[in-house]
């Protein structure tokens, strides 16, 4: 029995090879001529084609034709046997294959096209690459957290998927001089991103672009020009604390600490606050917090849990005129407003008696005051002093009215009303 040929028992028990080993062919290499007594070669070897193309391939057997002939050969693609009508015998040792309108490769490492003998053994293999050339990357954005580093990310293209392994390289250089440099720390903040950790110059612009390359071609993005000082951002403000304001049931106090990363640099910072009630996904944003590290939220619902976040935007670093880049939001901090001590509808309290002055106009006036406060002076210390005076007066009036109602007996009230 010739070397390399299985015996009759082995032939009868042999099954088509499992999918996993086939999928590894394009990584580990397919069988080539010379590896056994009955070897074959596929032509073309490892072709690269555009989506929609056609493929004409052949599997030619080398060695003793009586042991393995074209009539006994068949093809598989990614472990699935191809229909016999896609193949035709060219001669005693060659089987041809015709595939039309090819789809993109199922794996970026290439699809596995394999030629098999009658008994299922693998004679030869080829990696089939079908895809698209890369598109022009776009939407490059960059930021720095310590004025020594730079992180950039980009969008790979309008359609993105090429079905082939596509390599993206972030390039950068000083605008007016210097050589091209290549970023080395990829996938730091997502699949299409890169981090330059050090050795960047200040007070001079950089040119930054992205190059995309695969087996079918290459593409280059537009050049982004920036100064490191203009793209500085920070981590979110740490130590955000939210607390009640005494017994005021519609206010919460928010305090935080300035981000420490830029404490040694000359910069200003502005902040934003956003908050939402516990059972809602809708955030309300407070824009006019300016450079202070505390703020009081007013006009809130009594007895309600709120989640609060803060973010920071550094600007004016070493005289930069750019607006700065907002940090991420801080982790949500929760706090609740006190429950209202005033009786509400359906709460078991007495309704106003006929002829007694209603608190409706006062409530409406208070509502108007809160609306004005919320719109014009959310975090102004002066406005909150006025508001505190307003609340103190309202609580005193409410207490006096309750005492008067307790002193006057019902008969006397009736006499007073005549």
Automatic annotation (TrEMBL):
Keywords: Disulfide bond, Glycoprotein, Immunoglobulin domain, Receptor, Repeat, Signal. Residues 331-362, 398-418 are annotated as: Disordered. Residues 1-36 form the signal peptide. It comes from the Eukaryota. Residues 136-231, 236-340 form the Fibronectin type-III domain. Coiled coil: none annotated. Belongs to the type I cytokine receptor family. Type 3 subfamily. This is Cytokine receptor like factor 1.
């Amino acid at each position: 029995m010739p070397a390399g040929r299985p015996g009759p028992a082995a032939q009868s028990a042999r099954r088509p090879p499992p999918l996993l080993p086939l999928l590894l062919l394009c990584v580990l290499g397919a069988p080539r001529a010379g590896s056994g007594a009955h070897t074959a070669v596929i032509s073309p070897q490892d072709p690269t084609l555009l989506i929609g193309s056609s493929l004409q391939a052949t599997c030619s057997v080398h060695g003793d034709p009586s042991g393995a002939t074209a009539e006994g050969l068949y093809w598989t693609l990614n472990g699935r046997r191809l229909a016999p009508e896609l193949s035709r015998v060219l001669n005693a040792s060659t089987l041809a294959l015709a595939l039309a309108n090819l789809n993109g490769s199922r794996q970026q490492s290439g699809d596995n096209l394999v030629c098999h003998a009658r008994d299922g053994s693998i004679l030869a293999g080829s990696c089939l690459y079908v895809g698209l050339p890369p598109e022009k990357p776009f939407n490059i954005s960059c930021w720095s957290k310590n004025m020594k580093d730079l992180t950039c990310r980009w969008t790979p293209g309008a359609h993105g998927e090429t079905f082939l392994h596509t390599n993206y390289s972030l390039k950068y250089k000083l605008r007016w001089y210097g050589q091209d440099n290549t970023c080395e720390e990829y996938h730091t903040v997502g699949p299409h991103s890169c981090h330059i950790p050090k050795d960047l110059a200040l007070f001079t612009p950089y040119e930054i672009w992205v190059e995309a390359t695969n087996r079918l071609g290459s593409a280059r993005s537009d050049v982004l020009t920036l100064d490191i000082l203009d793209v500085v951002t920070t981590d979110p403000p740490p130590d955000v604390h939210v607390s009640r304001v005494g017994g005021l049931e519609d206010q919460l106090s928010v305090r935080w600490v300035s981000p420490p990363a830029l404490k040694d640099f000359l910069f200003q910072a502005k902040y934003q606050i956003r908050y939402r009630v516990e059972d809602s996904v809708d955030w309300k944003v407070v824009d006019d917090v300016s450079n202070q590290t505390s703020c009081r939220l007013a006009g809130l619902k009594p007895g309600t849990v709120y989640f609060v976040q803060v973010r920071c935007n550094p600007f004016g670093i070493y005289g930069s005129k750019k607006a700065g880049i907002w940090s991420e939001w801080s982790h949500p901090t929760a706090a609740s407003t006190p429950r209202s001590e005033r009786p509400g509808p359906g709460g078991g309290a007495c309704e106003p008696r006929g002829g007694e002055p209603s608190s409706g106009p006062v409530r409406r006036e208070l509502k108007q005051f809160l609306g004005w406060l919320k719109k014009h002076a959310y975090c102004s210390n002066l406005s909150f002093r006025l508001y505190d005076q307003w609340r103190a007066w309202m609580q005193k009036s409410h207490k006096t009215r309750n005492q008067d109602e307790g002193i006057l007996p019902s008969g006397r009230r009736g006499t007073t009303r005549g």
